Amino acid sequence: MPQPLKPPALRPGDAIRVLSLASPVKEEFFQRGCDELARLGYVPQFDPASVLARDGFFAGSLADRAAALQTALEEPATRAIFCSRGGYGSNYLLHDLSARPKILLGASDISSLQIFLWQQYRWVTFYGPMVAQNFCRGSLAQHGYEPASLTRALTETTRGWTLDLDAKPAVPGAAEGVLLGGCLTLVETTLGTPWELDTHGAILILEDRGMKPYQIDRALMHLKQAGKFAGVAAIVLGDFPDCDASGGETAEHVARRVLGPLGVPLVWGAPIGHTERPMLTVPLGVRARLSVSDVPGARPRLEILEPACLP
Questions:
Q1: Topology of domain 15-155, per CATH?
Q2: Residue 125 near residue 118, CB atoms below 8 Å
Q3: Residue 257 has what pLDDT?
Q4: Cα(212)–Cα(12) distance, rounded to whole angstroms?
Q5: Residue 94: in which H helix or E strand, if any?
Q6: Where in the chain is the domain with CATH 3.40.50.10740?
Q7: CA 20 to 30 Å from 7, out of 60, 106, 218, 225?
Q8: CA-CA distance, 152 to 283, in Å (whole number)?
Q9: What are residue 47's phi and psi, to 5 degrees?
């Protein structure tokens, strides 16, 4: 596998370009999120006409969003790109992008772009909080963000670190692999495309929200039948909020039934992506080790084995 291309790390006082690449944002939430970035010591930069644009269910026209992304990747004055929110529409932006790696932070619908950048260019990206969805709610707040993982992911350049996943062990064991994945729906929709996610040897992250248990079952079985779990080193599942119907199977039961027989280390309920808890920031494209103990009370640990950024 080619070596991953890591972006330069963030430094105190760095400028951050904030983009709306998917669905529109509410100005109030957006401004609160930018205020939080400023409190963290960064300088959020944005074009109000672009970042607050609305074109139906999209945050502006395709041409405008694509141009904003390419400009942000190329501009030397900003050190990172933080996405304002997910929603819908990032998959329209998947085309040749010319630039050196730069921090890209986002989740949910941004999975499409993150998977594309990994498959096409081997870019390390960051699955984590967004400006008008998580930063706007604050550090360690409900629906907010977890600050320690954010800082280590975006600023560490010399060593790895460990994440307490605060999740349930489902299948015990330990495994190493490259962290990949994201939103379950978006991982599934890469199937059959030129940027179909190569999951062999990966510690695969899968999370989503608002899916009925049978829809989760269908998506997981689709990935299984497409061979995407063959050779996977381990799997980390998110909280899957708003997914349990009244009566019948739960999302957790479905996941355990489909994925448990794989025999690889498996975790349920990590605060990654869609979660009501403070969201962890996870680097995608770096090597990690997942440890899932069968000792009662022991919590799964995800060790990031290398820095995600360059000096």
A1: Rossmann fold (3.40.50)
A2: yes
A3: 97
A4: 43
A5: none
A6: 15-155
A7: 60
A8: 10
A9: -100, 110
pLDDT digit string, tens, across residues 84-128: 999 999 999 999 988 899 999 999 999 999 999 999 999 999 999
Q: For residues 253 and 277, what is the distance between their CA atoms, to the nearest angstrom?
A: 21
Question: Which DSSP letter does residue 276 get?
Answer: S
Residue 156: predicted pLDDT: 98
In the CATH scheme, what architecture does the domain 161-304 have?
3-Layer(bba) Sandwich (3.50)
CA–CA separation, 140 and 7 (whole Å): 26
The candidate with the shortest Cα–Cα distance to 188, out of 167, 211, 170, 169, is 211
Q: Can you say whether residue 227 is alpha, beta or left, with left for phi > 0 and alpha for psi between -120 and 50 degrees? A: left
Residue 302 near residue 163, CB atoms below 8 Å: yes
Q: How far is CA 162 from CA 42, 141, 178, 232, 251, in A?
A: 24, 21, 15, 21, 27
CA distance 7 to 310: 6
pTM for the predicted model, two decimal places: 0.97
- Mean pLDDT, to the nearest integer, of 167-195? 98
Query: What pLDDT was estimated at residue 1?
Result: 61
